Amino acid sequence: MFQTLLKSNITPNHITYTALVDGHCKSGDLKSVEILLQQMEQKGVLPNVVTFSSVINGYAKSGMVEAAIEIMRKMVSINVNPNVFTYNTLIDGCFKAGKHDMALALYEEMQSNGVEENEFLLDTFLNNLKKLGKMDEAEAIFMDMLSKGLSPDHVNYTSLMDGLFKKGKESDALQLVEEMKEKKICFDTIACNVLLNGLLGIGQYEVQSVYAEIRKLGLVPDIQTFNSLIDAYCKEGKLESAVKVWVEMKSSGIMPNSITCNILVKGLCEVGDIEKAMDLLTDVVTIGFRPSPAIHKIVLDAASGHTRADIILRMHERLVGMGLKLDQTVHNTLIAVLCKLGMTRKAMSVLENMRERGFSADTTTYNAFIHGYCKSYQFQKVFATYSEMLAKGVPPNVATYNTMLASLSAVGLMNEAADLFNEMKGRGFVPNANTYDILVSGHGKIGNKKESIKLYCEMITKGFVPRTSTYNVLIFDFAKAGKMRQAQELMHEMQVRGVIPNSSTYDILLVGWCKLSKRPELERSLRLSCRSEVRKLLEEMKDKGFTPKETTLCYINPGFSKSGENDTEWWLNRWHKTKQS
């Protein structure tokens, strides 16, 4: 039609061109947009603010923010002034492109040009700043626009309230609720759900009382409301209340969705009530629901607590009978659960069945078998499975290597672990924090201090932070050698890196200092220094609520009583009394 107009020497007006430009922008065809703008210029048809705003929107949605800003500069050069919608599009585009400072600069420019804000612009700022976690900035912009006469709507208030709750600023969020009440701003279902989730997330309020109070605001519960209530009750372990909400939901005409089923089935399974979970699933099958792979995994993980293959397989068959689709994920879940319990023969039968259905073993499948064989340290089968995996062109991953390395390290086969580690790197895999934790601990446990420290330094250099258990192995290695200053420095270093010492950390250091203090060749001043360190550590333990092990106390009491240091025995008695009171 447009081409017919051109051939008939009829010049389309700016409305026709704007409609075409907008259509091409929405479809992402920016090349056609450029051609249309050139045609408009050639035919003397001036674009208006709507035309330019459509073009700017097209460029911004495509992530071409700088090009979108250039279009705005061009419109200003021909005396077409951008409006709040133009700026809103650009500011939103800047945020989505990660150009936070550019978005704020455009907002300042808009203000200096006298363009007034509206609730859509405010929502753009609130949503984007909320995603960035910059709620102080979001509040500041909210208050700025409020001071300039803008009346935020319920969408603005809801968005800000949601962000404040998620950032842990509950008092500010509740202040907004009071403000909404005072201004008689309506609470729609979305606002009520945000308030409900926010209050339940704090964990200080009883679920039913929160629900009752929000109903007073006019809440008409929807599926999200019921899901939130069921989830809250499940987290509190109140499964009977969760089931009652489920019944209330269905009686109100709202059908559960996959999220509802996942929440409640998981909750029931976690408390060991698998049969009730299965009854619930049987109930929803009648309304067309089919168990998902996620549900299958939840149920089988719970069934594995019985450590009986017959129960696991029976639950699997029941879910299949309810319409569970037997895909690769479902087969892999069943294999993984069986292998986790060391039932590799049963898992092999599942694998054969899986292959008969046309599915091939993938990385997840092989990893499950490797894990199963590693549990019983059947290294011949572990490496045979690994070799088969490579021969069939199935790529291992870091988890494959970590599983094998952990098993080798557990039995002290560190030469074999080192060879495998080198092979892993040779195949182009980058070790992760777990890899280093395994190796540092493994070498440390067999007294290979040089290698464990070397790997620890490599780990730190790569930006990984060791676990507490890894630090404990290193500290023990130094303490065993009587190098207590180095052991103490490691404890300090772990705290600097944000790793919290546990009771075992203190036990290791206490025993180390006590053993060092009993060395006959030690000078009196150094012996006293050792005992001072013991007292400091015991005080720290008490402050943190830790209890020394019996074996640790056996080292402490003789070490001090022999030298007449009754003050520490007195402290231990006082410590026991405070623990009992």
TrEMBL record:
InterPro entries: PPR/CCM1_RNA-binding, PPR_rpt, TPR-like_helical_dom_sf. It comes from the Eukaryota. PPR repeats lie at residues 13-47, 48-82, 83-117, 118-152, 153-187, 222-256, 257-291, 327-361, 362-396, 397-431, 432-466, 467-501. Keywords: Repeat. Pfam families: PPR, PPR_1, PPR_2. NCBIfam families: PPR (TIGR00756). PANTHER family: PENTATRICOPEPTIDE REPEAT DOMAIN CONTAINING PROTEIN-RELATED, TETRATRICOPEPTIDE REPEAT (TPR)-LIKE SUPERFAMILY PROTEIN-RELATED. This is Putative pentatricopeptide repeat-containing protein, mitochondrial-like. It comes from Solanum chacoense.
